[in-house]
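A brief tutorial aside. Many learners find it easier to grasp structure tokens once they have seen a single protein encoded end to end. The record that follows does exactly this for Efflux transporter outer membrane subunit. Read the sequence first, then the structure, and try to relate runs of similar tokens to stretches of the chain.
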Amino acid sequence: MPSTLRPSLIALAAAAMLAGCAVGPAYQRPSAPEPASYKELQGWVPAAPADALERGPWWTLFGDPQLNELAASVEVSNQNVAAAVAAYTQARALVTEQRASLFPSVTLNGSGTRSGTRGGGSGNATVDPNGNIIGGGSGGGSVRNAYRLSLGTSWEPDVWGRLRAGVTAASASAQASAADLASARLSAQGELASNYLQLRAVDAQRALLATTIAGYQRELRIQQNRYNVGIIPHSDVYQAETQLANAQSDDLTLVRQRAQLEHAIAILVGKTPADFAIAPIPQGQAQFAFFVPEVPVGVPSTLLQRRPDIAAAERRVAAANEQIGIARSAYFPSIGLSGSLGSSASRVGDLFNASSAAWSFGLSAAQTLFDAGATRARVAGARAAHEEAVARYRQTVLDAFADVEDQLAATHVLSQQQELQRRASEAADKVEQQVLNRYNAGQVSYTEVVQAQITALNARRALVTTQSTRQTTAVALVQALGGGWHAE
């Protein structure tokens, strides 16, 4: 190698190893709408940021041991979560792969061949000092051995920052995948909690109907006896039968709903519906503890830190930003360094002799002179992809704030509705009893009794439904806030 070329190659390699010129734009998190406070907070006390950032088994605050057990099994059994875990593992592997491109690659090659020729002479074969067979026999000819061993290396210095941009983009994508995993986990846990609480509400409805159906059956027997002795017309018996059949039909509707909810829970915990069952609450238990925990709501700025879907969208913006630099690096020449050290010999033992060694060191550079605007198009496409990612990030933020506002409004309204429906149920129960007393005294027809009983039953069921909706709304609010909260 000429002495004038070697120093310049070494200087170029050293410069490339130190630091390259980044061709991509510096990343800044895009701005997004961020209100000072929630519109629907309405008297709620904002949680301290440290508390709002705490995550944990939020479902335990509902005080149901079976819900705690089921929610914990989602982490290890739900297949959507398992798929998200696998996707995150793939993303991390891609980061390692991209980071490896920053370092030289080294290869070791070895070969051995044995070749010969056939001659027309005769005589005895001879062996030369290198072990090759020359001549011999009636066929003549010769046999030669050739062995080669080489160590090669190649490296693409990251002069323009393209490789580092690839690593940064892969890291951002891996972080987005981690946020997707958190979203999948939170979604599965929230869906399970909501389905379980609805199932328990169905149990409460069935317990309520069981008591009502038992009462309707007693009344049907009483009306049948009264009709048999001629006290009442047959129409009163028909009304009692209709009322009982309708209540029994409603119970069968609840049986179907419960089965669907139980099947959905089975899938969420990674089991087949045939292998999973949740025992109902006792049929005689007409009351159900609809405990609704108070959810401390943080200031809006913490939502950007808590929501995993927002975090995933922001990390995808960062990855798209790095793709601009990767596309722009095509404007600059690609530079490569290569070297090799090897030896060849006719005997294996001679491969390691210094006299048979040969080395090489090379520098390559390539620059695209004309590509009909392809590079410019790729840069424009990368910029457009970045703008799309920014728009999706901002839309995700807007949707998140709307989600929180919706759940806050629902929580506030449902609390008021529950109180009103509690009063309505108590009043309907009193009316039912008064009408039944008047009927027994012969003052009103049985039709009025039926109407009063239907009104009372509907009021009780509406109260149970509202109580259950408050619970599922609390679950939805936890999800809207990005996870659980810290409970002192």
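Self-check: The chain is about 60% helix and 10% strand. If you spotted this yourself, you are ready for the next section.
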